Amino acid sequence: MKLGREARSHWTLDPAGVFLNHGSFGACPGEVLAAQSAIRAEMENHPDQFFARSIEPNEDTLLRKAAAALAAFTDAPEGQLAFVESTTVGIQAVLQSFPLSEGDEVLITSHQYHAVKLAAQRRCRETGATLIEADVSAPVSDDDVFECITARISDRTRLAIIDHITSATALTFPVKRIAAALRERGVKILIDGAHAVGQLDLNIADIDADWYVTNAHKWLFAPKGSALLHARASEALETRPAITSHYFERGFPEAFDYVGTRDYSAWLATPAALKFYQSLGGARVRAHARDIIAFASEQFAQLGARGLGSLEMSAAMRVFELPTRAPIDHVTALRWRDALWDKHKIQTKPDGQTGKLRLRISAAAYVDKADITQFVDALSADGWPART
Question: InterPro entries recorded for this chain (predicted)?
Answer without folding.
Answer: Aminotrans_V_dom, PyrdxlP-dep_Trfase, PyrdxlP-dep_Trfase_major, PyrdxlP-dep_Trfase_small
